[in-house]
Amino acid sequence: MDFLVIGSSMAFFAYMLATMAIVSRLFHPSGPNLERVLILATTAIAIHLFNDAQLFFVQDGINFSLPNVISLVSLIITITISIVALRAKVNLLLPVIYGFAGIWQLVRIFIPSTESIPLVAEKVILVSHISLALIAYCILIIATLYAFQVSYINLKLKSKNLTAVVHLPPLMQVEKQLFTILAIGTFCLFASQLIGLAFLEGFLAKENIHKTTLSLIALFIYSVILFGHFKQGWRGHRVLVLTIVASAILTLSYFGSRFVKEFLLS
């Protein structure tokens, strides 16, 4: 597809320019030029959105193939963090999300086309389950990025390296945001699993049981993190490690089997 090559290339360069614009001034005394960064990022997001719209909506359905889903997830996360950047200091997160989104746009050009996996739009319950699951995944990955930011700020404060955190938000503010985001994501994940268990006939079928089991394990770990924080005062390194473990399990649940089916066994 010519439009995919051109569009993905344009999005890649715009994302990379936004990434360089913030990385080059990350520790500058006056900080990054946020207006320039967001103009470049908005350009990249607009192209990214156009690309995804062309690839997702096919005749009589929605193409939920693995490359498309990864692109959509990165798009949602990128838009969310960019909006947050308008009101909060998330300079440490922006290069990560812009860099990944840009690299994936480039990678998509070289991924061989896989068999379409259409999802008929009339299947409301299935669409609701998948939509909630994707929203939950995006929110929980954002929470994981916040956990890294909390650990970084905490580490620099303990080493009394105040220069490294001068352009970052206060530790307590980021920590509060982390657990708010984590709670919202955990609730969305719980809702998606509840819909699947209650309304989808094949949710516990043999071919899906490993995905369901891994998702429930991740849900349990996220719940433990929230309980540990609000009841036992957990924070810092323990929360970071558990969040990474839960996110890795959830990623394996969502994308592991699809990678094997769409690429290794195709």
Topology, pairings included?
Layout (H helix, E strand, L loop, with lengths): L1 H22 L10 H23 E2 L2 E3 L2 H20 L8 H17 L7 E2 L4 H35 L12 H29 L9 H24 L4 H28 L2
Helix pairs in contact: 1-2, 1-4, 2-3, 3-4, 3-5, 5-6, 5-8, 6-7, 7-8
Which key terms come to mind for this protein?
about 75% helix; three-stranded antiparallel β-sheet; about 270 residues
Describe this structure in words.
Helices cover 74% and strands 3% of the residues. The two termini are 20 Å apart. It folds into two domains: 1-121; 123-266, no CATH class. α1 (2-23) packs antiparallel against α2. By secondary structure, the chain is an all-alpha fold. β1 and β2 (61-63) form a beta hairpin. It has helices at 2-23, 34-56, 66-85, 94-110, 124-158, 171-199, 209-232, 237-264; strands at residues 57-58, 61-63, 118-119.
